[in-house]
Structure formats: C-alpha cells, structure tokens
Fold each of these.
Amino acid sequence: MSTLKRKAASQAGSDAKKPRQNGSITSFFGAPKPAAAAASSSTGTTTSSSAPATKFDKEKWVKSLTDEQRTLLRLEIDTLHESWLVHLKDEITTKEFLDLKRFLDRETAAGKKWFPPKEDVYSWSRHTPFNTVKVVILGQDPYHNHNQAHGLAFSVRPPTPAPPSLKNMYTCLKNDYPTFEPPPNRGGLLTPWADRGVLMLNTCLTVRAHEAGSHANRGWERFTQRVIDLVAAKRTRGVVFMAWGTPAGKRVTKVDAKRHLVLKAVHPSPLSAARGYFTCGHFRLANEWLATRYGGREGMIDWALVEGGSIFEKEEKKEEGDGDEKVVGEKEMGKGKKGKEAAVVTTEKVKKGLKKGGVADVENVAPEAEE
C-alpha cells in the first residue's frame, strides 16, 4: 500500500465516529413503501440493483492502463473508494479527465499550493460509499485557506470554526429541529452526516490556495456532473438532492423528479440566506421523504453533530404539534430590505410545491428569492 493510500485511509478513520442513526417522524408523504432492499440499521447501506453485476477486479483494471495513465491516476487508484471507482473508471480515463490531472501536476511542479490535501480530494467517496447515498448536498469550490477544505462540501476540521455559510446551515437546521445543537467550540466537522449517507460534494474538487475559482473549468465540473448523474441513474430507491443557489440548481435539472426529491433554495451564504434559506425546511423535508422510501426512522438522516445527541431522541421528548415557535435567525433576517418577509417560507408552502412533482423550489415561493 502506498504512503498516500495509508494516509488517506488513516484520515478517513480519524475524522469522526459513526453515531447511531435513528429517528421517528410523521411523514407528510404517506406511509412507508415496502422496502425493495434491506436497509442496514446503522450505516444506511442498502443492497439493491445499483450494485455491479459482476465483481470489479481492480488489480486487473490497473494493469490494463498505460504507464502514463497509471502515473496520472495514482490518486484515484489509491484514494477513490472502489464502490465509486467501478462506476467512474471509464470517465477518469477520458482525455478530458487526464488533461485535468496534467493541469494539477503542472500546478504542483510550479510550486502552486492547492487544496484540499491530495489524500482528501476523494474523502467524500470513502465517507459515503456509493451504495449508502441517500442525500446529496452540493457545494461549489473547496475552501481556499489553510486547514479548511478536507474533501467534504461546507465541512471544516477542528480547530477551524464553522464558516458563515455553515453557521447559516445550522440556523436552518435549528428551525427544522429545535433540539439540534451545533458542534462544541464553534466546530464545523460534518463527517457524521457523510458517514450516515449524505454525499457532501463540491462541483469543483480542488482550488489554488487563496484564489477562489482558480481551478474552475479545468475538468472537475464534468467529473462531478458524472457523479451526480450516476447517483440519479443508479440509486433507484430514491435520493434527496439539496441544491442551494443558482449554480447548484443548474446541476440537477436532469434529475428524474418522479424517482428522486430535488430541494432548491438560495445559497446559505450571508449574501443570500435571508431571502428564504433559513426557513426552507429542507432538512426535515428530506427526512419525511426518506421515511417513505427507506422505512421510518431507519431510513432517515440523524442530523445531530454532537455525540450522543440524536435529534430524534430529543424530538420524541417534545410534544407533537407544538407548532408556532419563534424562528431562529429572525433578527439577522430582518436586517436587510424585505429580509424577514422573504425569509418566512413555511414548510407547508414548500410541500404544496412537492405535490406538483418531486421538486421543491424555495426560490419560487419566497418573494425576492432570486440571487
């Protein structure tokens, strides 16, 4: 095993433990459908038709590559989880992807620092193997400062505090689940979500240090679109796609809304969050829908980020239907022009949109919601 491969495996195991996944909620979407495949009680892993028909012989595939391909694709061979590699092996041998790898090699040779660290570029694939994906949250560029990006969209490792967009995600979650607690010490590590089946995917996987967008249009967009299309095509039991902001929304336009749930809203960035993000209801809506596809509590995502702090166990202690609680974040949302009015988008409004299909778009139900 190469040094890079050992380092990647070690890092994946040290980010976070996998907390218990459990929960219960009354579903707007109806009674759970009979499970077409068995769901694991702890990891969300399912056995379904999405699995390869024949066992993938990775060693044989590597031997079939040219010497140059093996050199250029060393990172993918060593660190891309095999459950993804089996589906993406043809994509990563295309001219476009190999040109992307040549570009990254030139960046390195020129002394250009880029993020995330090499061993973390595909950490999303190891935390969320293909057959565990239930939710996809799309980001854009990785964070471009030191000790931030580690391969999961929006997530940062300790001791880096949660960036502004992530703090706004916590506010949204608090509105959906009032018992939610952010990580201690202003933390922003989201590996517990990834370990429970949430694919935290940036649409561009690398960035030059301190230069946002510096690796855009080099080939990552094509690759990550292939990842999105792959999930939409082969995770036939159903996946929730959360697309926040116009760029993310464009990435999911071809997702089959009869098979999957697409949730759209403005981006959680402080520049746009007050126009509908805080009360978009996406975290609760995702769970209500997942319960109908995967079966009750075991099918849902426990959004807790504090060890031993399951949001579902805390929810059960609250009386059902206590309804009109004060919306977290109203103070911030009310500062901008029409901010408070635009931000108050009830879950019921979004659910009405869902009745028309599998797409809930807060941008279409909230005033002043376009970016």
Note: Residues 60 and 77 are 12 Å apart (CA to CA).
Amino acid sequence: MSMVAWLQARWQCSQDQDASRRQVMRVLCTAASGYIGGSIAVALVTAGHEVSGLVRSEWSAMQVRSLGITPAHGTLDDVDVLRAAAMRADVVINAASSDHERSALAMLQVLDGTGKTFIHTSGSSIVGTQSAGERVDDVFDEDTPLIPSSGRAAPSFLGHEGECRPTRRSPARPPAAASRGTDSER
C-alpha cells in the first residue's frame, strides 16, 4: 500500500462522516520541491487533496505551484511560518531534514491535542551501525541486529514523551534517495 493510500484510509477512518463520502485532506508537506516531499505532495494533489508545501525560493514556489501545490515560503528555521501552515493542515508530513528538531517540535506543538496526523520522514540510519563513518567489511542484511542511534532527533519527539497527547505521530523511513525532485534548477 502506498503512503498516500494508507494516509487516505487512515484519514477516512478518523472522520465521523459517512465512509462512502470522500473527504479532502489539507496537507502540509515540507521539502515540497525535493524528491521525497515533492513525490508525496504530487501524489496527494493527484488524489484530489489540498496540499501546501514549504519552499525556500521563488523558483521553487513557481515549480510547486505549477504542480497544484500551494507554496508556503520559508525555511525550517522559520518556526512561525511552520506553525501557521501546520495549524491550517489536517496532516503534516515532514519530508525535510530528519534531524532539524526545532522545526519538527514547532509543528508538533501546534498539532498536540488536535488528533491530527504528523508523519516524520527519517533515514534508515536511525537504526545504524557503530562504524562512525569508517569503512567496514561486514555484510548487513535482515538478520543483522539493529543498533538504535541515540543521537537522532526523531526518537525524542516521536517517542514516549508524546504518548499522552492525542496527536498521531508516525515515523516513515524511506530508503536512501537522491534526485532533483520537483525543482529542476538545482
């Protein structure tokens, strides 16, 4: 099941309306001009949802606007922009830096107690090795024991401290990805 299909199903189940009536989600997606964020945002627009996307430049704003995404101008350091955009959304997908704790916490503070969904993309390195960047000859596969990386931002705000707050928090760990995304001027 794709992330969009899963999110739509989860959204529909959370609504107190007739399940046969399709609901439109309002989604904020950070890194909307990037590969992962852009792919998610375009899929959501294609599925008929209203998507706003955090973009840093006017060029990126033009690119995402041409794809049906409403640009929200700012960076991960612009917490007021993030809070305002998150407040208007039913679902927030943080597809930007998984380690920018300040931005993620700013969006979560707005969502806490609302029952809205927060999806945080994080790399597979969150359960990495202790190689400290050095070359190793070991083979890593599905049988290799996982060694949680304690220095990452995701566990601190997706973990135990938020369990009592009615906010749906979901980490998403896509495989390593590199591409130009929706912004072709890079």
Note: The two ends are 31 Å apart (CA to CA).
Amino acid sequence: MPLESSGSGRAERTGNEGDRLAFLELLAMGPRGWRSRFPVAAGPHGWRSRFPVAADATVYVGGLDEKVSEPLLWELFLQAGPVVNTHMPKDRVTGQHQGYGFVEFLSEEDADYAIKIMNMIKLYGKPIRVNKASAHNKNLDVGANIFIGNLDPEIDEKLLYDTFSAFGVILQTPKIMRDPDTGNSKGYAFINFASFDASDAAIEAMNGQYLCNRPITVSYAFKKDSKGERHGSAAERLLAAQNPLSQAFRFPSVQDATVYVGGLDEKVSEPLLWELFLQAGPVVNTHMPKDRVTGQHQGYGFVEFLSEEDADYAIKIMNMIKLYGKPIRVNKASAHNKNLDVGANIFIGNLDPEIDEKLLYDTFSAFGVILQTPKIMRDPDTGNSKGYAFINFASFDASDAAIEAMNGQYLCNRPITVSYAFKKDSKGERHGSAAERLLAAQNPLSQADRPHQLFADAPPPPSVPTPVVTSLGPGVTPPGG
C-alpha cells in the first residue's frame, strides 16, 4: 500500500479501509523479508540521539499474539510515523512476551494517529488494543537521582526496589546497567527518587552497606552532558522546593516512625530484631530484605514503631550498640508513603505461579506511580504464590488505566483479572468508589500524579467502574487490599 506525503509532512494512506486491513494482515503473516526493508536494530539509537520525544508520544498495545515480535511491532507502527522505541515485557522463565507492549513515537501527533488507524485491527487473527500511554512521570523528576556502584551480579531490579523504596517514592523501575548482548549486570545502577528527602536518606543509610556480600557505594549521579557536575546541587534543591508536585512527596514528620537498622550479623533474625527494638516502644512491623538464592538477609532491616517519638528513642538508645559483636547503625527512614494512599488499590487474580513482584512492578508501573512494592499473597510455609496480588497506586487515573488496559490480558500464559480490591473490614465494598474519588480530588498530595498517568487523553467516565468478578476457585473470595 503506497504512502503519500501531505503538506503537513504526515504519511497519508491511499486506497480504502479494506486495503489497509488487508495490508496489515499480510504484514502480520510473518517477518520474512522485513529486515531488508527496515533497519530495525539501528532505529531506536538513531532516533533517540537526534530527536527529543514528546511527553504523550507513547502508546500501549494489548492483545498481542505470541508470534508478534518487537521488530514486527516496530515495522507495523512505522505506518503511523517514525518509531523511537518499542518494548514488550517478557516472562523471565520462558522469554516469551506477555501479550502487550509499548511503542514510542517522535510526536504526540503520530501516537494519536497510531491509535486512530491501529486500534482493534487484527494481528494473527486477534484484535489488538491501542491506547495512549504516559511519559513516565517526567514532571516529577526533580533531580534526586542516585548512583549505586559495586553491585553483586546477582542483584536484580526487584531487590534494589525493595531496598530503596523504604526511603521514599521511586519514580521508575531501578535501572541496572546491563551488557546488551548477555544481559549481565555491569555492576552499577541508577534510581530516580521523587524528592531529595528520600535520596538524601538513601545515601546516608546505604552508602558502604553490604548488599549480597559486597559493600555498595551510593552517591548522587552525574548529570547528563555536564562536566563532572552531580545531581543534588543547591540549585536543583531550590527548584524542587518551588515545585508543588515534588512537595507532595515530602512526608510530615509525624509519619516518620520507621528506622533503618544496618550492620546486622547474619545470625540476627526478624523475631530477634522485633524483641530488641521493643525496648524502645511498641513495634508495628519489621522487615529484613533477603537474598533470593540463599534466603539469607542482607545485613540490614527496617523497624516500624507506633509513633515518631518511639522511633527517635530507638535511634538514641540503639545506635552503635553491639549485636553479636558488631556495632549496628540506626537511622530514621521514611513512613511508607501513607499520606499518598488515596484508595487506588487494585486486585490482580489468576496469576501464574512464576510471576514475581518485579514482573508486576515492571508491568503496572507504566500506568503511574506505585506507592509500595506489589504485594503477591504467598503461602507462609512454602513462599509459593497463592495466585493473586494487590497494587496500590498514587492516583485513580493510574488505577483506572491499569484496570482498563490489563483486565483479561495474558501474563505468563494466563489471562489475569484486574479490578478494584475489596476494602478491609467492609461488607463487600470495593475501592474506587465515588466517595474515595471525591476525597482524593480534595487531597493536594494525590493531585501530584494526575497529569502523568496513562490514557490522559481519554479518562474513564466519572461513574464507579463495574466491579470485575474474580474467580480463584470454588468458594474462594479475594480478600481486601
């Protein structure tokens, strides 16, 4: 099907609608011959180095057949305009994509055109869904970007997220730099926090700490295209202080009831940590991140108290005491983003046993800021997944988009169900109600995420979404989120 250039520079298609669909179906029959026509591998790097990408220039593509590849997706969406990048999240075990992907264009105009001509066309006999995606929270990037060095090769993105999210909201999945051919870690990574409070706390607490048997280095990252200047400068902090979006992530001190505990001997357990810190006041929770291979903790943990006063007292009496002959470090940590919880909590059912928290985070963080690590419910004895999970978004725009895009999509060869979770201690009432949305609209903290969510061009209607009935088996009712 020929392409003609219009006065606006857009490629206009000739022929009727039937010709277009026939062409797309023909394209989907197989990748034979496409490499000689489109140098796909060179595409993303060439485009990305020369052109700035518009904020709303990314589309979500769902309902993809297992035979669809990234090169095929690239070529298909070239019909709408120049493609900057494609991404199809893959199953870590099988290497097979999950039935959806993202396509990034040079301009929002091209993304809109792709939605217009590609939505609901058939690819390998299956209709695909094409919707607008967000620009990964760019307006929230205040420069609180840290560098983490000397990483053990076994450390993955999930472990970094679990470790560093205790200090505050992380805007994107931690980025471990990897060899493009082998996928092996290069030994360093970057994390982008939503506030300098969080990045400062992470650097102070984690620099020099052991992670998977190596002492890591944590510092502010160098700025791109700068002559040795790092993030975290006074100028950046001044701009952040004037940015109302970044202020939403500075938590009131009354919430700071969690302490970080470092330098722990391998013999220290969570029950022992709990009993030890009871000397300072009532303990709400303890958490010690563990190595996925050995099951051994990483030499640090977190203790949450009922009040900030108890946390401060713990720091006063516990810092630098010796435990199994080793001095421990006790510092203040953040309070798990409680003020940002507006009720945008979703339930995900029918999960494949192989799905882990990282895969859920990678999949659902595209729709907006996630306040905590996705919570997969597991058997306390075996650690095996029970087949369902919960995710807490920072806004209803994000949760609405996730439900609309992902409900019924395949994840690791199973169609997942995505709906609003039941409220705790309620009689069958789900999150996402009109009352919660009204309260969220009046909460200045929750408003920080509104401009940055998926499908901002076509939000769901204001009515309460129809609940999705989740079937986990005979007589099983999903618990509240």
Note: The chain has a mean pLDDT of 73.
